[in-house]
Amino acid sequence: MSTKIVIDCDPGHDDAIAILLALASPEVELIGVTTVAGNQTLDKTTRNALVTLEVGGRADIPVAAGADAPLSRELRTAAHVHGDSGLDGPELPEPRTQPVTEHAVDFLAEIIEGGTVLVPTAPLTNIALLLERHPEVRDRIEHIVWMGGAIGEGNVTPAAEFNAFVDPEAAAVVCASGIPLTMIGLDVTHKALFTRAHAERLREAGRAGRFVAELSDFFQRFHERSYGFEGSPIHDAMAVAHVIDPTLVTARTANVAVETSSELCDGRTVVDLRGVTGRPENADVGVDVDADRFLELLVSRIESLP
Ligand code: RIB
Ligand code: CA
Known about the structure:
By secondary structure, the chain is α/β, with parallel strands linked by helices.
């Protein structure tokens, strides 16, 4: 019996690879994709989601566009990481499909049924709006597996990871929601690097494999330049992989709170692993990952796509 999932994303190289991993994995059924402004503006992230589903041979899966800006801040994009298109690297076909006309928040309220797992791989603006505008949906969300946050160093500022940094208020709402939450943060995603060898394995593997190889060629440049890494963390794919196989990531239950009013630390996910604050535990936080098994799952599944 596969798990119904919705990916809320800002494609984005790693979002696109996460979508393809979901399409290639019988353990999950991707019932919809919603988009939000983040890595690039909403028009670009939405177009990229449509293109990715076409590359994966599943243009039938509905896409709904959501928030074009954070709840209460100016949008900060990541063109320096993902390029002007948001998916620089491969040649991007003009999508042959359109998003549904409904706003992502209303679309989510409609399609989420009991047992659905929500996999946000972006700033949490849509999810916070969903909980505010459609509180009745809460009970139908089985679990939220969020790629975002960090116990340790951030990647936008020393304190904050991008998805939390762009919309700290939204992240605070979701962390305080009481819905079962797993946080897949930089502490685990940076432990599993997709290398050129993985890309070469995929380059001849079919349309989706070639697409991922060309995405990683571009994505790698940022990580080489900024971190000196020999590979790239495919952050968002690890959130999907956690739904596919929850034994890959080791998580610890803790309180996660989000800083929203600090000059230096806005967007910081403050993870209280030792319970020193007395704040109630509200999330399972990734602290380790079996990198080899995750990467083998990712590459072998993408390899299986036409
Ligand atoms: O910090 C990494 C996260 O921010 C990933 O989801 C990436 O796609 C960007 O959205
Ligand atoms: Ca993302």
